[in-house]
From TrEMBL:
One Pfam family in the UniProt entry: Phosphodiest
One GO term of the biological process aspect: nucleoside triphosphate metabolic process
Transferase is among the record's keywords: yes
Protein name: Type I phosphodiesterase/nucleotide pyrophosphatase/phosphate transferase
Organism ancestry: Eukaryota, Fungi, Dikarya, Basidiomycota, Ustilaginomycotina
Domain of life: Eukaryota
One annotated GO molecular function: ribonucleoside triphosphate phosphatase activity
Keyword Membrane: no
Amino acid sequence: MGRPREALNNGTHLWEKTVILFSIDGLKPSYLTPEHLPNLHRLSSIDDARTLFGPSMWPMSPSLTFPNHWSLMTGLEPSSHGIVANDFLDVGKNKTFYYTDPARSWDAGWWKGVPLWEAVQRQGRRSANLMWPGPPKTTRGASPDFFQEYESPRDWPMERRLAHLLRWIDLPSDQRPSFICGYAPDIDSLTHSHGVNISHPSITEALLSIDELLPSLLSAIALRNATDLVDIILVSDHGMTSTSNDRLLFLDDILGPALFSRIKSRHAWPNVELRFESADDEDEARAALSRARKKYRTFDVLDRSQLVERFNWSADAGSLHDRVGNLWALPDVGYSFTTHEEMRSFEDGVYSPRGNHGYDSRSADMQAFFLAHGPSFRKRPTPQVPTFPNTEIYNLVLDILAVDNAHRAPNNGTPHFWDNYLRANAID
């Protein structure tokens, strides 16, 4: 795909086609109600050629924040882009990736693939990143032209994030980015704390704040006479489900104190990936977990090859040896592995987080959100796009921006997936 770059203007200034991709962490499609997200609900319900809504979007497995944001940004599965969980051990590097610690996650060597902001730059355009989960630089040395690193959401209310996006939009034409990505963690953080209770006052308030983002952006873009120049894509990375004390699995009881004490590493929460010094200990742990599975029937025990198949990863299991162990336990949706020591750390005796994700990505509770609006979309026989994997977002952005195949990277998206949804001047 690809076409010559158009010389566009808003009546007073030169413009290039622009895409704003904004992720709302943990936004479930089921939150889309007239009460909690009235603006987005109205947009999703009307038959408007400029609006494309999907009732849900499949996250990649595991349904966690960092693997899925890098899948959205590269069009690759976690087995291809390398971020296989929010936390994992790379035995080849003898280093641990931990998502909230830049010292253990920003090294470009962790991250594979060509992110959207680099693909856009390859075609001579500018890009901007407002806190999107991922590194500030790739192994090739590419960085967004404008980069705002992650800071506490308490310091970044939605009004400030909107103002920051518009500051980039208002740059002179030779500096203005044509691809902007942004991120808001508020819904995810609050539902981790309170569970999936959207009637909780703080969650309701956060949802209404999120709901103002798209209309506020559209109004600001209209004031700049750029309605026919800017497309906006709203996504989330995964859904959320509530946890409870009656759905706990005590790993220290399942393994017994002696074997539990010999665990070398445990990663991939809320799943359990265990590594031991000795093969005998791993075999013993597998047997103990398998016995417990037959008893409780609320989790599965898998080896590396079985995990690759369960997660629908296309990479060869052997190629994942360094970052994916050979003993996994995957809890059913809403169940949590814990220990008696961990439970004693909760002052009220109630397991936390009260809401969680990371479970089966095809389950209803883990589904992600998708809604797009802008001039590149066209009238269709049906206004909705059926549920699709989030790896398709990569080509959607690059199709709109007419980035040709020579500059976009190989990815796990489906060629021509978006042809029926985009206007003829947005694709070949």
